[in-house]
Amino acid sequence: MTIVLFLIILAVLIFVHELGHFVSAKLFGIRVDEFAVGFPPKIIGWKKGETKYSLNLIPFGGYVKIFGEDPNEESINGEDSKRSFVNAKKWKQAIVLLSGIFMNLVFAWLLISTSFNIGLLTSIDDKYKDRAENTVTMITSIKDGSPAQIAGLKMGDKILNIESGKTKILMPNTTDIQNIIAESLGEIKIDYKRGNGTSTTNILALSGVVDGKKAIGISMDFVGTVKFGFFESFVEGFKLTIIETKNIAVGLYHFIVGAFSGQNGILAQVSGPVGIVGMVGDAREFGISYLFGFIAMISINLAMLNLVPFPALDGGRVLFVIIEAIIRRRIKPAIANWTNTIGFALLILLMVFITYKDIVKLIR
């Protein structure tokens, strides 16, 4: 079921992105030859007007075939060349290329706004502390082989009480839990909630799980449900979309700089389709509003990744448009097409490598 849900999410995100290119091209009168979700072989296809539509079997992608986006003699000088992308004004070309990114950001905003209207389980900081309900410390990740994992704790468990020696704290925050673990001299008793049930476990904190102090191998966050009215949800959703877009863009920048500088373990931070399937399953456990928020983060990541000025990505194509505008002549079609083809091949190789890494991690 999780795999099916992931494929649906991926198809929707691709559809939204390609819809941006499709709509903007149509609005500018540029000919669109094909609109497809997924890569061939084709499952179903039909034609309406001048455009062929298709739903394809391989879900990891999709495309809009815009006449003249990959220039050739027909699109440059042919009978219908006036409706060619390559002959459109540079600002129109840039808008068509960037519209997919724009649509992913708009889609993220709508998802986050909907989550706020339903009631979003989110990290509580000074911004939301007065609006949050049902606040609790939640386990966000567990280290493999750690005392917490051995004791049966799982990601998403909510810590209700913690006790060590004569110290017992009801509804502890993250600082309370960290202090008790670090100062414990024996077993730690933890009462936690999972789903609709509650359980108790005893854990012995150990040195060496993390550097410099005793630990049980968990990461935590203080979370609560934040809910806004209909119109306020869209305002707060817009604000959070801007914040997360900035955070993801900065994170992507540091990742790229680290990759090119040879930073060790940088690719370990990346998850491919296999890794994301697991994340989707975890997000689903927290409810529909949390899942919507998670999908919004994927959509923003997709937007920022496509903005990178790398051949075959939207950002790379925009870079070509900017260069042509500066030098006031068209880059030779053969050079542009080959550059994008090589870029696409490198992206496929990277995806294969990351998928292999995810599978190896899953097997271990």
Please describe what this structure looks like.
- With 364 residues, the protein is α+β, with helices and mostly antiparallel strands.
- The chain folds into 2 domains: 2-117 and 289-363, no CATH class; 132-226, PDZ domain (Pdz3 Domain, Roll).
- Helix content is 50%, strand content 25%.
- The chain contains 10 helices and 11 strands.
- It has helices at residues 2-27, 73-77, 90-118, 147-150, 174-183, 230-260, 273-285, 288-307, 314-327, 333-363, and strands at 32-48, 51-66, 120-123, 132-142, 158-164, 167-170, 187-194, 197-204, 206-210, 213-215, 218-226.
- The chain is elongated.
Summarize the structure.
It is built from 10 helices and 11 strands.
Q: Which properties best describe this structure?
A:
50% helix; single chain; seven-stranded antiparallel beta sheet; elongated; alpha+beta; two-stranded antiparallel ribbon; 364 residues; Pdz3 Domain
Helical percentage: 40-55%
Strand content: 25-35%
Order of helices and strands: HEEHHEEHEEHEEEEEHHHHH
Count of spatially separate domains? 2
Biggest sheet layout? 7 strands, antiparallel
Runs in which pLDDT lies below 50 for 5 or more consecutive residues are none
SSE inventory with pairings:
Layout: H1 2-27, E1 32-48, E2 51-66, H2 73-77, H3 90-118, E3 120-123, E4 132-142, H4 147-150, E5 158-164, E6 167-170, H5 174-183, E7 187-194, E8 197-204, E9 206-210, E10 213-215, E11 218-226, H6 230-260, H7 273-285, H8 288-307, H9 314-327, H10 333-363
Antiparallel strand pairs: 1-2, 3-11, 4-5, 4-11, 5-6, 5-7, 7-8, 9-10
Helix pairs in contact: 1-3, 1-7, 3-6, 3-8, 3-9, 6-8, 7-8
